[in-house]
Amino acid sequence: MTEEVCNCLDKFEEQTRQRFHKLYVLIYESTSQSINEKLWAKLPSFYVKNNFIRIIPFKDHINIEAKAVLSRKGELGEYKITPKGMLQIYHNQAIPEEILKAIFRETLEQKF
After folding, report:
1. pTM of the entire structure?
2. Which of 34, 41, 80, 102 is positioned for an S-S bond with 88, CB 3.0–4.6 A?
3. Class for domain 3-108, per CATH?
């Protein structure tokens, strides 16, 4: 994890940091492509070419911005999809690991 992404997480409680780390690992497990990590508008972002995933931590939940979220909406029934198409996972909800790996793979490996 880059230093700037680590520094961004410092202000959050341990539960948020642990859940962020789990999502971070899933991103890297989802693709063999080289991932470029950086902050975009102070938001942790993960790029493969022009394709990106953003993980946006909050006190009680984490939002995930990825293009493939909407194509998997039917598999995410118990989770909220925001009006901007982000997946919202509250800390009291399980992380849907296999679905997220598919979403991350589809998002990062899209060809335009």
Report:
1. 0.89
2. 80
3. alpha beta
